[in-house]
Protein 1
Amino acid sequence: MWSNFFIQEEERRRADTVRRRAQRTGLARERRGPIKLALLLAGMGTALAVLAVGTEFWVELGTKRGNGTSGVCEAAHLGLWRVCAKRLWLEDLPPNRETCGPAELPGEANCSYFRFFTSGENNQILQRTTKKELGVAAAVTATLALAITVLGCICVIMVLSKGAEFLLTHAAVFFSLSGVLLLVSLELFRQSALLARTGPGPAPWLGYEYSWSVACALAAAALLLLGGGSFLLLALPSRTWGTCCRQQ
């Protein structure tokens, strides 16, 4: 009898301890799951955004396959920060490809950061040049989007650790804004990568295609917008959901 009494008393104390901890945090246990799921979506979007912004495979450029001399052809790939010019062996190209590429093939590579970040000059890429002002604006916008995602993650951590549920609205705004800024950065980069000829002579024909970094940026923007919308729904008071359910 006494053993059962002590066991029940210990269980009661543990339940009281758990209840007091929940009261201190101010966050119900059933709300932690949806918040963590929304944070997972936003975290995946943040990881893809970092991968896209940090790599230089946004656009791939390549001359025609028949323009190569001495068994090589010229290609290039660029991102927000760097540009890489490559000389690829014709025998390594896929047989059904008309342009020089893809850029992941092995070959002589010459990579450098864009000059407009250092000396303020434009880079010449296969006798063409990018638009400096739009390139700088795209890089700054993408960096700002990453900084805003960090603020959103901090808000969610404060919600989970301190129970400050009012920060869910701030997290929703931060993640949604970062997704929109990524889309703006993509459009600015698209406009800056419309290359112009640098000299009076004829420039070689170039193939122009988007690469996997752009796909990462688009997926990141979609996940961040989805995460921001999820946090916005979670920020609605429970009375709103109860009213909607009663009306249905």
Protein 2
Amino acid sequence: MALEWVVLGYAAAAEAIMVLLLTIPGLDGLRKGLVAVTRNLLKPFLSIVPFCLFLLMDIYWKYETRPSCEADSCTPSEYLRHQKSIMKSQRNALLIASALIFYWLLYSVTSLVVRIEQLNQRVERLKNRD
């Protein structure tokens, strides 16, 4: 299952980089190309949502089927493995949340940038008309 987490991590990183590039001031020359690339990637990146739901269900299933380990009923190595498993689940849940938030941010920022470009074009047309 490690490959799924690597893919999700790379997707979240790509989303974060695209959001960063779209919001950095001073890249006006590259912004049109970035917006075009981002708009074309939004639909394929939408597959992250069901993928994250699947991975979240996997975390839940592992949590429900994990044997309980109290300090008295298990050896120190079993207790350490139990704590490590809990920390991995929490890390993976954080990765899921970040991937979903970055997708939402990317969608929102892209739509705002497109709307700003449309409004700027309307202003230019109104200036040229007068």
